[in-house]
Amino acid sequence: MFINKKASLADSIYMPMYLLIISSTIFIAYYVWITFAINFAPIAAASPNNSTIVQAINDIQGSMANFDYMFPFLVGGLLIVSLLFAFRTGANVMYAYVSVIFWLLALIMSVIFTNIFGSFAVTFPTVANSFPIISYTMNNMKWISLFWAFLISVVMFTRTKAEDNQLRAMSVGAFQ
Fold first, then answer.
1. Contact present, 114 and 138 (Cβ < 8 Å)
2. Residues 6 or more apart whose Cβ sits within 8 Å of residue 126
3. Burial of 176 per CB tally in 10 Å (0-12, 13-18, 19+)
């Protein structure tokens, strides 16, 4: 993905895919944890010697709920990394037509990612209620992907002053 330390418009497809994988993994892990905690806590609570185990289960339960607050930082961090690496890429104006195709592809893929996540939310409704920020982000992934593709396009197709001076010098030299 970031082998050459350059971003591309494909990041607006890959990053939501990674977010889908991360959120799906969080949902499954939390569901497995809740099932384990519900089944194991009464057994551990039956013995007075296992109070530390019950306390650890309760502490982990609270810690796992913090994954929801981490998700916006993950989305923002991936977006910032893509934008910073897009500064190094640069693109010709001729690639603007390709960017429109990538915008459409990013929208189509993000709708697919949203539908896949919707299946997770329906399958694990208690987990979806426990993670409202992740659910909101993944349900609005098409807008996030479109915003992502737009920002990367703007950064890639915006020229710096040095590039403007270089192009101006080349155009002046071509007419002489």
1. yes
2. 31, 34
3. exposed
Task: Give, as one character, the DSSP assignment of residue 47.
Answer: S
CA distance 91 to 95: 7
Give the span between the Cα atoms of 138 and 111, in whole angstroms.
10
Q: Are 141 and 19 in contact (CB under 8 A)?
A: yes
Q: What is the pLDDT of residue 1?
A: 47
Residue 168 CB contacts under 8 Å (≥ 6 apart), including other chains: none
Q: Would you call 138 exposed, middle or buried from its count of C-beta atoms within 10 A (0-12, 13-18, 19+)?
A: buried
8 Å CB contact between 17 and 164: no
Which pLDDT score is estimated for 92? 63
How far is C-alpha 26 from the geometric centre of its chain's CA atoms?
13
Copy the structure tokens of residue 42. Answer: 């009464």
Dump pLDDT digits (tens) for 30-49.
Answer: 998 888 888 877 776 677 77
Q: What is the largest CA-CA distance in the chain?
A: 92
Residues in the chain, pLDDT under 50? 1-3
> Which letter does DSSP use for residue 36 in this model?
H
